């Protein structure tokens, strides 16, 4: 039986809850009615952005001081691609580095860093002595590729240091490869459609192999597991280690993931900063004009304005609701600024409210199918927003395949893109040396979009695993301009949306432990990541991570071997996979307590 006093308490509680819900709803309606970009509060203000860039520039300069006694990484060679991407990896993981012209110089340097990354073209028949010297001094040597067969066959010492017994074939054709679990994030994977040609060597039985080749050819079926063509392995070299990458994995941005896997294998515990951000972008949405009418009517029975409003929006809203990703849309008032039938700019306000309700944001695009001057196109787009959403401040720009010099000047004060803080650009595996880039004289940050939401081939999955491991950063895009201007049958929206939803579950969900953010929020995370510095040390069962940052929180990955985390102060942790942990630091430092599990003791490099 409910007494009068209890009834009064229950009534008061219900009223308070009702008022709270009503207040939240009213606040949301007020915010939406203002027409503002609600994501701006997730980004840093201008002064903070400038400060973060200055800190990044300062740290980057300090890391390349060149004093071997104070460096953690030695880069052996000149300006080969493998060393350029290795240098980028050093900067992003805050590892000081120095350079050597050849392996002998490194071996003769008493202050040589503990880890060397070596251009494989420098390995000669005479390199055996230098490799043995480095091994006797506990050094870890990473060789960017297999030395030439002629070098191997003329030097037993080099073969021995690399863990090679014999050269079976100068070149074999492979259909793909298998990567064993725990080398990088993503678990054990087998790629059947990743063709490559490389030398086939037989390794010593004591060598540990991380990646082996796969083939559908009959000769391959006759091989035992230990005879499979090795693509990446570690050999003990006295008390040191030699890692050999028998593929082109270090000649692009995926090198960051491979080097992280190697460095984390070589250390009993390994700590490095990550971004912790996943972006999902929709290009050419909303489209506010009827274009390419005949093709669109043939495919959908109505014009593009209606297709985007009545077919595409409900579908992508459902996908985002299902995946819990945060939406960044790149608005295209028009795609063809010369030939279009009609516009519906007033639709922009309705879609703004719908996108904002889903915690999304809108940006502008440099893409067009016409050929009017870029500044003219963007000015017209900005005028549409000025008329329909005068309070909406756009800070995100999609380059749409344009080269940097085509739009960089438009960021200047007084130009049409002066408010832009984030540039989203298509990914190039062997493009810019920097995966994250500041562009222009201001604090504009360029972020790569390295996945297509509607495609997932073996090469895409390997890239995903490598870049998630290195950066804790993911970016994908669905390009809806193809709906209006299709080039192939798969550009029909029913096929695109099916593939989009289909590929999320088996592939991207593996990395769902990273935060899903809009472009503005991801931009803020990347800026903090670039500007961070840190120290870490271990005493007994406690690992202390001390970041140097002005951010309220920051993120690191901790890789262990045969240990597990039992507690943490100054932050929190999430187990990603066996031996891999995401650390969120919310204090001046975090102290992680670990204990040995009943796994095999660590036997790394």
Please name the defining characteristics of this protein.
Immunoglobulin-like; TIM Barrel; 9-stranded mixed β-sheet; DUF2194; alpha/beta; 3 domains; DUF2194 domain-containing protein; 34% helix; 605 residues; 18 helices; Rossmann fold
Shape designation: globular
- Identify the CATH class of the largest domain: Alpha Beta
Structural class: alpha/beta
The number of distinct β-strands equals: 30
**Count of discrete domains:** 3
In the CATH scheme, what's the topology name of the largest domain? TIM Barrel
Organism: Candidatus Faeciplasma pullistercoris
Protein name: DUF2194 domain-containing protein
Task: Describe it.
With 605 residues, this protein is an alpha/beta fold. It has 3 domains: 64-268, Class I glutamine amidotransferase (GATase) domain (Rossmann fold), CATH 3.40.50.880; 277-526, Glycoside hydrolase/deacetylase (TIM Barrel); 532-596, Immunoglobulin-like (Sandwich), CATH 2.60.40. Strands 2-1-3-4-11-10-9-6-7 form a 9-stranded mixed β-sheet. A 9-stranded mixed β-sheet has the order 20-21-19-18-17-15-13-23-22, sandwiched between helices.
Describe the SSE topology.
Elements: H1 4-33, H2 46-63, E1 73-76, H3 81-92, E2 97-100, H4 103-108, E3 115-118, H5 128-136, E4 140-143, H6 149-153, H7 156-162, E5 164-174, E6 176-179, E7 189-191, E8 196-203, E9 208-214, H8 218-221, E10 230-237, E11 240-245, H9 255-266, E12 270-274, E13 277-287, E14 289-290, H10 293-300, H11 304-323, E15 327-332, E16 342-343, H12 347-357, E17 361-365, H13 374-388, E18 396-398, H14 404-407, E19 422-426, E20 437-439, E21 444-449, E22 451-452, H15 458-471, E23 473-479, H16 481-484, H17 493-504, H18 519-531, E24 533-539, E25 542-548, E26 554-559, E27 563-569, E28 571-577, E29 580-585, E30 590-596
